[in-house]
């Protein structure tokens, strides 16, 4: 069968499967939004909305699958937008939308604003004006459960393909902004992708919406064979198998066209004459010979591949052993290219003048500097008598130089000159979280939206350290003063001098030297020196509760009384008055989000480390309302003296919760797990 026929039949099969599944589709997800409130039965708004939704059953299908309709005036005006996937035919498009209208009204009764997504269409309605408005929330993402094998090759192909499709879709017409395409990852694997915007967006708006969604790939779908991010105004999906219908409007593949199939010298020449019996026997003989040669060649190929694979694995092991040995000899060697001259840094900081001093920590002062090219930097000058010696210094350089994440501070270089030891970081203009959170004036700037953003960023940064970086890293000193805030108030975890490096398969360790900050330390670490990713989770839980209440855990005040933050939070949680914990400034905060954060914080500070969630679960809990949270047990408590130098450990005697944690949300037919961030 030639390539044109193969293309025709594969397209026909996909089209047939699409038509079979449209009617029986289950929704991917939906949101019943409370931003516009509810409508009453038999109200004008309900009449306008019903008029619009019922019109789809009698609507004339268009060939671009986008519908925008309005009915009514002022606050009773109903606005409806529906969009079908660009590869779905007009009949199936309307079938999907009609299913959506019924399902959404059933799932969100009396809500003025709601949105639902199916695999082939999206429907949203509201009393707000939404036509021509680029909106990124509410949104959700999904991922394929299978991991890729060649991560670098896959990411390169994915980046190139998504950028190409984004440009192609954005430049579409006012009727259609949709693109599909493919790109080879390896000789045996091809990547397929689809991107789409609602066509009421301008080209820059569509491009921006898709860019923001694509930037979310490392969070939602890193190293996965497939994934998607779905937002009201745009969406994308990628898989290693083609999931869309090939149409005449498809974006061309980024792969090079295959070379023409060579004509075999054994093939008989074309002839209009009727072949004789002798010709048939000759052709049969030739066929047998060809098959025999092919089988022998295949067997030789398989044997050769096995030998090559064995030798490659053996060679890789030798290289790995050599590389590990080299790293053990000098772990800081890989960072030598980051070394600065002391004179350069002294000039940048105006000889470490007090005017450039940003703060003073336990291990030295931090200065702002400006390099000759105009770039701002932050310089940590370690004091010669600090507790952090050469070992900690090399540890921080070695660790941080390898870390690349938006929620981790970026190490730009270091300097060693006699007794001088300097660390050069990116300059983060808004200083540290504690300078906002615990300041009675600046705290007002941290509204709920900013605090929730900070909580989520810290969680993602810790998740990267624990699971997604090259090596598992336990921070051991997570606290408000070690969270820096950039110009957009994005959090960046800093200060890795106390961090411990673990093998990827190592879950815990022990030390005789306890470092960190009392109040944030997990009980097993403070008392026995046992540290793990769960000790970082404990610190995160304390920090989360501090962000909610706006007070330090070591000086938590209720009226005139000084109490322990964890015990106060737990007591109010049991009494059903958990909102007493919340900073009064956050009066306009979402009650649901705040209560969920208190719940997560208490789960993180449980005495039994095994009961605490890992950071992957924490991130999922923060971003998905479909995950049921287990009941927390009583937390571990620290009681401090006035000098904060003596520490008394109180055993809570808590029992384990009998409720198990729900790990994942629903799974679709192609093993794509679903989660969704809260509506914003």
UniProtKB/TrEMBL annotation:
Polar residues biased stretches: 272-282
Gene3D superfamilies, per database record: Gnk2 domain, C-X8-C-X2-C motif, Phosphorylase Kinase, domain 1, Transferase(Phosphotransferase) domain 1
Residues at which ATP binds: 380
Gnk2-homologous domain location: 27-130, 136-243
Chief location: membrane
Topology of the protein relative to the lipid bilayer: Single-pass membrane protein
Keywords: ATP-binding, Glycoprotein, Kinase, Membrane, Nucleotide-binding, Phosphoprotein, Receptor, Repeat, Serine/threonine-protein kinase, Signal, Transferase, Transmembrane, Transmembrane helix
Endpoints of the signal sequence: 1-24
Location of the region described as Disordered in the Swiss-Prot/TrEMBL record: 249-282, 659-680
Pfam family, one: Stress-antifung
Any one of the GO CC terms: plasma membrane
Keyword Cytoplasm assigned: no
Cited SMART domains: S_TKc
Protein name: Receptor-like protein kinase At4g00960
UniProt organism field: Herrania umbratica
Lineage: Eukaryota, Viridiplantae, Streptophyta, Embryophyta, Tracheophyta
């Amino acid at each position: 069968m030639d390539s044109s026929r193969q293309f025709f039949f594969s397209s026909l099969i996909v089209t047939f499967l699409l038509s079979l599944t449209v009617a029986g589709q289950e929704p991917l997800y939906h949101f019943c939004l409370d931003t516009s409130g509810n409508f009453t039965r038999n109200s004008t708004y309900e009449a306008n909305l019903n008029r619009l939704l019922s019109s789809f059953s009698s609507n004339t299908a268009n060939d671009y699958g986008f519908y925008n309709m309005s009915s009514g005036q002022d606050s009773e005006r109903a606005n409806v937008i529906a969009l079908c996937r660009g590869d779905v035919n007009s009949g199936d498009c309307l079938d999907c939308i009609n299913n959506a209208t019924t399902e959404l009204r059933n799932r969100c009764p009396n809500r003025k604003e709601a949105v639902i997504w199916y695999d082939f269409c999206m429907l949203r309605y509201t009393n707000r004006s939404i036509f021509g408005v680029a909106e990124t929330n509410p949104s959700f993402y999904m991922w394929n459960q299978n991991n890729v094998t060649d991560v670098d090759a896959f990411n390169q192909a994915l980046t190139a393909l998504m950028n190409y499709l984004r440009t192609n879709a954005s430049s579409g017409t006012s009727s259609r902004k949709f693109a599909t395409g493919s790109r080879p990852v390896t000789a045996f694997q091809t990547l397929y992708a689809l991107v789409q915007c609602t066509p009421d967006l301008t080209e820059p708006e569509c491009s921006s919406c898709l860019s923001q969604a694509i930037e979310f790939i490392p969070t939602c779908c890193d190293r996965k064979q497939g994934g998607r991010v779905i937002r009201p105004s745009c969406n994308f999906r990628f898989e290693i198998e083609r999931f869309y219908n090939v149409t005449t409007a498809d974006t061309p593949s980024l792969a090079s066209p295959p070379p023409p199939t060579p004509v075999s010298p054994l093939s008989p020449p074309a002839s209009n004459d009727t072949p004789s019996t002798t010709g048939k026997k000759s052709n049969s003989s030739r066929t047998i010979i060809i098959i025999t040669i092919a089988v022998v060649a295949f067997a030789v190929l398989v044997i050769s591949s096995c030998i090559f694979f064995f030798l490659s694995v053996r060679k890789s092991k030798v290289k790995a052993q050599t590389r590990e040995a080299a790293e053990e000899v000098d772990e800081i060697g890989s960072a030598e290219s980051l070394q600065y001259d002391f004179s350069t840094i002294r000039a940048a900081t105006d000889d470490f003048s007090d005017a450039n001093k940003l703060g003073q920590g336990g291990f030295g002062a931090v200065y702002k500097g400006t390099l000759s090219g105009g770039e701002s930097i932050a310089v940590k000058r370690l004091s010669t008598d600090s507790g952090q010696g050469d070992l900690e210094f090399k540890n921080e350089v070695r660790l941080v130089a390898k870390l690349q994440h938006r929620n981790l501070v970026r190490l730009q270089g270091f300097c060693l000159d006699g007794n001088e030891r300097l660390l050069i970081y990116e300059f983060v203009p808004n200083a540290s979280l504690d300078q906002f959170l615990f300041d009675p004036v600046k705290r007002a700037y941290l509204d709920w939206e900013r605090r929730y953003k900070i909580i989520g960023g810290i969680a993602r940064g810790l998740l990267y350290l624990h699971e997604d970086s090259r090596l598992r890293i336990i921070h051991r000193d997570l606290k408000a003063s070690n969270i820096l805030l950039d110009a957009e108030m994005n959090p960046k975890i800093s200060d890795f001098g106390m961090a411990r490096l673990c093998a990827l398969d190592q879950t815990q360790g022990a030390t005789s030297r306890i470092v960190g900050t009392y109040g944030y330390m997990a009980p097993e670490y403070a008392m026995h020196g046992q540290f793990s990713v769960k000790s970082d989770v404990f610190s995160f839980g304390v920090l989360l509760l501090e962000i909610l209440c706006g007070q330090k855990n070591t000086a938590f005040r209720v009226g005139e009384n000084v109490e322990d933050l964890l015990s106060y939070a737990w007591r109010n949680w049991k009494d059903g008055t958990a909102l007493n914990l919340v900073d009064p400034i956050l009066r306009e905060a979402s009650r649901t989000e705040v209560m969920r954060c208190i719940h997560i914080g208490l789960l993180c500070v449980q005495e039994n480390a095994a009961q605490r969630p890992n950071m992957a679960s924490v991130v999922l809990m923060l971003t998905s309302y479909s995950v049921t949270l287990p009941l927390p047990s009583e937390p571990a408590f620290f009681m401090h003296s006035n000098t904060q130098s003596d520490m008394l450990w109180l055993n809570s005697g808590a029992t384990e919760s009998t409720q198990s944690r729900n790990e994942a949300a629903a799974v679709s037919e192609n093993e794509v797990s679903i989660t969704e961030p809260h509506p914003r």
